[in-house]
Amino acid sequence: MKRSANGVGILCLCAGIAIFSVQDLILKLLSANYPLSEAMVLRSITAIPFMLGIVAWYDGGLSSLISRRWGAMLARGLLNFVAYTSYYLALAALPMATTVALYFTAPLIIVILSVVMLKEPVSLQRWLAVAVGFFGVVIIIRPGGELFDWAAFLPILGGFAYALSMIMARTMGSKDSAAAMAFWGNNAFLLCGLALTASFGAGQTADSVHPSLAFLTRGWAMPSLTDAGLMCACGLIAAVGLTLLTQAYRIGQSSIVAPFEFSFAFWGILWGWLIWGQWPDAMGWLGTAIIIGAGVYVLRAEGVQSTPSQNA
Q1: CA angle, corner 299, sides to 156 and 24, nearest 5?
Q2: 218 Cβ contact list (under 8 Å, min separation 6)
Q3: What is the per-residue pLDDT across 257-280, written as a single tens digit (0 to 9) for each?
Q4: Three-state SS across 104-170?
Q5: How deeply is 6 buried, as exposed, middle or buried, from its count of CB atoms within 10 A (0-12, 13-18, 19+)?
Q6: pLDDT given for residue 204 in this prediction
Q7: 111 to 101, 244, 265, 282, 307: CA distances (angstroms)
Q8: For 178-230, what is each residue's pLDDT tens digit?
């Protein structure tokens, strides 16, 4: 029975990952013509009714949203905002496969933060896995090389912010449901998206030729019907993907299910190849394999319950 539940959990997780990868594809396609704040605001507004529906009929009822810890959930949402903003800005400048691989440093950073903040014991083997994983990061980034782009540090910053949010989730998860945390997190996304709009909405500072900075500072533009639909679709994607991920961890053993989050790398490589003709070089493949291998080892060893795509 347990083996069957784990199998269904893995299927739910892989389906959720595949759905979330479409959101990344959409945002990378839109990054050349629209600001990130516009996509975030429309995505967050669209997600609200879907998330309310999930909470009402699937995860404890609307009363579960009323919590004295709503401030902490908003704070966690702010961390997720920093995490995913960094990730999405990197998508504008880097190949999808590279961005995804560098973002997978989050499980390695969680190990470090669990020692510093939670005083959890970590074995020598796990420390070695963390060191090996960051060696893979160096291989991909190749600082000082001709192909180096400072935007490569953005997914790592995103991984750090995400790791902090996961540390918070460890202390909050026993009191608040995943759907409630996602709902308040979505509200944080909306508020922060509106703040970015107030800061850069006129586009007066969007004179940078770098794709990441342009995606951040570009002013709002009237989208075509198709592009507006794509932005709003990200809200539905977030709600459906979250439901699948939540179900995966509800019915499956986390130490068995979690490593399959790295299937996200497959979609990053596939979309990059199909849409932009981007394919990792030999060093890119090597660095990606090292990071994923180290991450899988850490997740299996620690039974970490969340990795980079959960609660996106």
Answers
A1: 45
A2: 34, 35, 200, 203, 206
A3: 878 888 999 999 999 999 999 888
A4: CCHHHHHHHHHHHHHCCCCCHHHHHHHHHHHHHHHHHHCCCCCCCCHHHHHHHHHHHHHHHHHHHHH
A5: middle
A6: 59
A7: 17, 25, 21, 28, 12
A8: 667 777 788 888 999 999 888 886 665 556 678 998 899 888 889 999 999 99
Residue 246: C-alpha distances to residues 16, 117, 126, 251, 269 (Å): 9, 25, 26, 9, 25
Tokens of 4: 């069957």
What tokens were used for 130?
């963390």
- For the chain, how far is it from start to end, CA to CA, in angstroms? 30
In the numeric block, the tokens 């949010």 are attached to: 165
User: Mind listing the pLDDT tens digit for each residue in 75-101?
Assistant: 888 888 899 899 999 999 999 999 999
- Taking residue 286's Cβ as centre, other Cβ atoms within 10 Å add up to 14
On whether the CB atoms of residues 245 and 16 are closer than 8 A, the answer is yes
pLDDT given at position 202: 66
Tell me the C-alpha distance between 151 and 95, whole Å: 11
